[in-house]
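re: ur question from yesterday

yeah so i grabbed the chain u mentioned. its 161 aa long if i counted rite. heres the sequnce exactly as i have it in my notes:
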Amino acid sequence: MSVRVRGGVAAVAAAAAIVGLVVAAGDPDASATVADDAPPVAASLTVAREAFAAGDFPAALRAYEAVSDADPGNAEANAYAGWIAFLGDDHAAGLERLEDALLEAPFYPDAHLLRGLVLLRGFDDGLGAAAEFEIVMRLDPDGVLGAAAERWLAKAHGSGG
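ran it thru and got these structure tokens back, copy pasting raw so excuse formatting
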């Protein structure tokens, strides 16, 4: 899959930057060097988080896929692989991976925020997106994701869907 963010989706690129910062900041060990004896899933998640935060989506996707191969129910890997698929213009695959993540972890705010962005920007579904953003605001009321969801909620209410 060729993964690139097109210039016409600046709002989505900005969301990717917010999410990338959250991925890196959300885990205090996200920028740590991977130990030689780290479990494969933990090591791959660290690599994926670092690549994602650096904007290297192809490397992040490879690492998230390695996590999914080892742990198919890993919500983080499914959520961020879905977001990367969306950024690569495969909206349906992105939405499917996000839904897989939410089946495994229904209270995972990252997956709800990303699903809301995919619904809003990929499918022009403002009502569906608004519902996802409201969930994020309940799950992370004082956090970065909750604040981002609140900003996106206004856009969702203003969309045609």
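noticed a couple things. Residues 1-14, 24-35 have pLDDT under 50 and may be disordered. also The longest helix spans residues 10-26.
anyway ttyl
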